[in-house]
Amino acid sequence: ELQQKVEEAELLKMELQMLETERVRLSLVEEKLLDVLQLLQQLRDLNISKRALGKILLSTLESCRAPQPGKAHLFEVLDTLQQELAGCELLHQEPVEQGQSPQSLSNPLVISC
Q1: Pfam families per the record (predicted)?
Q2: Which domain holds residue 45?
C-alpha cells in the first residue's frame, strides 16, 4: 500500500511538472501575441494599407509553411509575424502627418472596432 502511494505521488509530481511546462509555454505565447497586437495597432495608427499588411501576413505564412522540428508551430508563426511586422519600414519612418497625436500610441493594446 505504501508503494502504491509512492507511485501515485510520483505520477502527481510528473503531472504537476507537465502543467508547469504548459503554463510557461502559454505565457510565452501570450507575450508574443501581445507584441504582435501592439505592432498591428502601431501600423494601424500609421494607416498601413491592407495590401501591405496582407503581404506581411502572406510572407509570414509562406515562411512557416513547414514547421521546424522542436519548435511549437503556433509560437513559430507568432514569432515570425512579430519579426515581419517589426521590420516594416513604416514603423521606422517619422510620421508625416502633423495632425497625428502622440496619445494615439499611448495604449497600443486597445483596439477599437
Answers
A1: CCD48
A2: 1-65
CB 42 within 8 A of CB 91: yes
In a domain, 91, yes or no: no
Q: How many residues does the chain have?
A: 113
Contact 57, 81 (CB under 8 A): yes
Residue in the block written with cell 503531472: 15
- pLDDT tens digit sequence for 61-87: 888 887 666 667 888 888 999 999 988
pLDDT digits (tens, 9 = 90+) for 27-64: 999 999 999 999 999 988 888 888 988 999 999 888 88
Residue 100 lies in a domain: no
